[in-house]
Amino acid sequence: MKKISIRQCGVIIVMCIFANKILLMPSLMYQQTSADSIFVLLTLFLLDFAMLPIFIKLKENYPNKKLYDILRDKLGKVVTKIIYFAMLCFFFFKCLLVFSVTYVYFKQQIYQDEFIFLALIAFLPVINHATISGIRAFSRTIELFFGVVIAGFVVCLAISLFTPISTPYFFVSSAKDFFLSLYNHVFAFGDFIILFLIMDRIEIKKGQTKKLFFFALFAIILVVSLFYLFYAKYQITAFMHNNALADLLVFSVQFNAIGRLDIIAMLTIMFITLFQMEIFSYAFCDCFVNIFPLLNKNYSVVIFDILFCILYYVFIGRYETMVTSALYWLPYLAIAINYILPIILLVILIIRRQKIEKKDKNFI
Amino acid sequence: MSYFNVKDKIEEIKSTLNSSVDFSSRLYKKDNQILGFIFLKSIIDQTLFSSAVYFPLQMYNSKITIEGLKNDILKCVDIKEIKEKDIIKEILDGKLIIVTNFSKKILSIDLLKFPTRIPSEPPTSPVIQGPREGFVEDLQTNITLLRRRIKTKELVMEVLRVGSQTQTKVCITYIKGIANKKIVKEVKEKIKNIKIDGILDSYNILTYLENRPGSLFKQIGNTEKPDIVTSKMLEGKVAIIVDNSPIVLTVPFIFIEDLQNSNDYYTNHHYSSFVRVIRLLGLLIALISPGFYLALQLYHYNILPLNFLITIADTTQGLPFTPFLEILFIFLLFQILYEVSLRLPSYLGLATSVVGALILGDTGVKAGLISPPGVIIVALSKIALYTIPEQAPQITVLQLIFIILGGSLGLIGLISGLVYIINYLNNFDSFKTPYLAPYSPRIPQDLKDATFMEPVYSMRQRPKAFSPEKKERL
Prior knowledge:
- The complex is a heterodimer of chains A (364) and B (474).
- Chain A is 75% helix and 0% strand.
- With 364 residues, chain A is mainly α.
- Chain B is an alpha+beta fold and 474 residues long.
- Chain B is 45% helix and 13% strand.
- In chain B, the strands form three sheets. Chain B has a five-stranded antiparallel sheet with strand order 1-2-4-5-3.
């Protein structure tokens, strides 16, 4: 099997961490918890980050085994298929949300009109091709553009420093708002779940696991910096700015002579969106192939496209409805996938460890 | 005892060769011994035949034997015994065949000679500094050029015959212990499996070596310079020299090779790095500038600086074509002019330039058919294309695709197209070597000779991408 390197795995994680957090989410969070959103973000990241050691332990114990096989051996075929179906839905809606949010941004900022046909024609073939090519091909592509994407992101953050910013007031939200915000925004997290899904395709050499931590930490720092600078720049008006990364570049007086700098954010967002959609589409198709082993990847791609188009049209022109409905029912799915699945895997690991220890004792 | 009726044998061979006009034979009689010389006079050195074969034979006074011919009389020439079934093949290879009436053994002497070019600077890769020698059409000369540079017993040169009619010699050459055995084996197998009637040039076998024969992208390296082939072989690659072709193929091939130029290694590495960045920038400009200009003009005019927008609006006002058709028209015009200038005799080249630049370009703008920004953008992309001339054919096709993408889908079309192409390139390997290495997958060690070049002394290891057997350069 064609495996990916730890670096390629790292860049995939970075893209997943950026997913659904760099455009709309800062303003949504601000509505609920003001500047304390930083703490909501940190808490959710902390919960996510805890999945990484579980993944590494699982990989150590089952170096070449698929997640599907591990779950099937321990939980049975039916339960595994249900879990995989939940994951399929999770990744599909993540992909749809990424596209929807970016589409609205592009529509407002650079196309200034509906361009859904163009967007679907431009995006879907690329995503389908990446999915069929396999994880090695598209992870290499992400690796190639990684420097450009990160440079774009950092430039956006750096330019925002040249405008007047002030330290936001923290601890202004109630505990109830804090927990409600945690619950509402959990759908945008669970970024490490992809690692479990592709665990058999990752080649981790001895001593390389820290690289994975480094990539994850790096991406988290960038997102937290974005949130901080965004609130520091817009303060109480932050909820009115739906495109956080791009809006950081607006009103940068010192750089106005150069021209419209938000093109840096536009290009960065375009690349990030495409890569995220490639990753989530691949995850969807991988789940699909495991649920329906008789159908090959090409079928899953067709199903993905049909579902994507249909569901997108359900949301067309109802941007608010889309966000509200996502906030309403996506958290249930996200909690199941983000936290319950890793806990199940942790239990599997503990049981396995106990069995080994017992075996060793008997042997002695 | 008579083994051959020499006259009959000569007639038989003549008949097999359809009494070809350049068929020639001589009989040499001494006492009761008869020697028959059979050859094609068009491809052998007849002076050498007289001086090194016929004359020594006349001077020889003893009884002639096959051993005597081999070890005494004709010891100055390349002589060997052959089987009867190989006679025709040897004659066609420019050998002189000797049949006698006193032995069943047949001798073959290499007297091959045909008009060849003197190694000169190849027009496709001129250098400012560094060796100017280039390969020629003669396989032997090309082998000599390589031998002169690689003086090691590990240099392997294996010749295979390809083409049922042309029987073209294809020489697979590599350095044993450096080139990856699996790659060598794969090359040999692919060449052995070629089923074709004739090979006229190395490009004829190119498609048989490619992993994806239908692809637009170049998958096999080619050069006309022996110093480049030598350096590639030292990196662990396999070279394929085809008789009658000055182009030597090298495998595996990765994209970065076209970014590198032999001049880079003969100048300061800082300057070489700068030039490589310019080439990469040129490639990007060539690829997307017309499409990007179209996308900005059609969909994203709001992100253009106001002064630039006014200039474009002023110059495109009243044009009969839509921006998309205008760029397409200029693009095709440039391509037609390019094709014409390639095929016209040089004395007509100036006339083409005048017609192209002045009449079509200048008058087209004045007549209000095309706009100056459109001409500038397409001209820029066409000039930038030749920063990496080896990639020009595929980039030209991609330019057209990007014009269509930019014109129909805008900026997202361009970005999607770019990502699609990179995905595609990442999905195919050239002889198990990732096409976009050392960028993706990232191979830090190989980056020393990528865009930012390090001094040659720091490149102590061979590129990891080619999986050489011996990793250290020492």
